[in-house]
Write a structure and sequence with these properties.
The protein is an all-alpha fold. Helix content is about 75%, strand content about 0%. The protein has one domain: MetI-like (MetI-like fold, Orthogonal Bundle), CATH 1.10.3720.10.
């Protein structure tokens, strides 16, 4: 705990991530104005006491949209990262434990997934179905499965080379039992770090998909769609693009700093190597 309190990047990341989560939780019960409340007579108003961040082209309160957009981003990020963890980690453990054909099969599957980035996968999925939040989650989740499978496999291979794992196998423990009792707890740290990083990637990907019209459909607030709507008014009111862009940047920065801080906290040798 003392080492964590001295880590500046970790503290900044925790603070920014905490603000993101707090906005999302507060928006579940309260926003300054109704998120879907349209007041054309108040359109494009500058920040003031009534509207702290001003209003958009439909007269909606920008702060309320930012708060509700945080809720949407977290929902997409948590679900997509959860899909990657739940499906990708067992694949990585299987590849490391069995080797041979299983390792080769998992490796080729992850190569195929990496060949189709998130946005390209979403375009393909929406071409077959229709745009929406579910398709965004599926596209981001498929990419995360490959990421977590690679991370779990690499970390598990290192653990399988240790003496206590060899001893457990020599005593007749099944590979499944060894993977769950010994390997998985010892690779949890890199998985947690990767989860925070992929959370940031998911938020950025969801914003990009919404900007392209492939993500969360209206009237559900989305930071990416706010940027899409703001580009029409860039020369009239540039603040329309400033606030959602700043929200995306701070959310991604906070999660990346949190991931870097957790990596240094779990393995202090990495920080010593960077400083030395």
């Amino acid at each position: 705990m003392r080492r964590a309190l001295r880590h500046r990047s970790l503290l900044i990341g925790m603070g920014l991530t905490g603000i993101l989560v707090a906005m999302a939780l507060i928006s579940l019960a309260w926003t300054p104005y109704p998120v879907e409340g349209v007041d054309v007579s108040s359109r494009l108003r500058p920040p003031g006491s009534a509207h702290w961040l001003g209003t958009d082209h439909l007269g909606r309160d920008v702060l309320s949209l930012i708060m509700a957009g945080a809720r949407n981003s977290i929902a997409v990020g948590v679900t997509a990262v959860g899909i990657g963890l739940v499906l990708g980690t067992p694949l990585g453990l299987l590849a490391a434990a069995r080797g041979g054909l299983a390792d080769e099969a998992v490796g080729r599957l992850t190569d195929v997934a990496f060949a189709f980035p998130t946005v390209l996968s979403a375009i393909l999925i929406t071409a077959l179905t229709h745009p929406g939040m579910v398709n965004s989650i599926v596209a981001i989740g498929i990419f995360n499965i490959a990421v977590f499978a690679r991370v779990a496999r690499g970390a598990a291979l290192q653990v399988y080379g240790r003496e206590f794992v060899r001893a457990a196998l020599a005593l007749g423990r099944t590979r499944t039992d060894v993977a769950l009792r010994h390997v998985l707890p010892n690779i949890s740290s890199p998985l947690i770090v990767q989860a925070t990083i992929q959370f940031a990637v998911a938020i950025l990907a969801e914003a990009a998909l919404s900007y392209l019209g492939l993500g969360t459909p209206p009237p559900t607030p989305s930071w990416g769609r706010m940027l899409l709507e703001a580009q029409t008014y860039m020369f009239v009111d540039p603040r329309q693009a400033l606030w959602p862009g700043l929200a995306i940047a701070l959310a991604v920065l906070g999660l990346n700093l949190l991931g870097d801080g957790l990596r240094d906290l779990f393995d202090p040798r990495l920080r010593i190597l960077r400083l030395g």
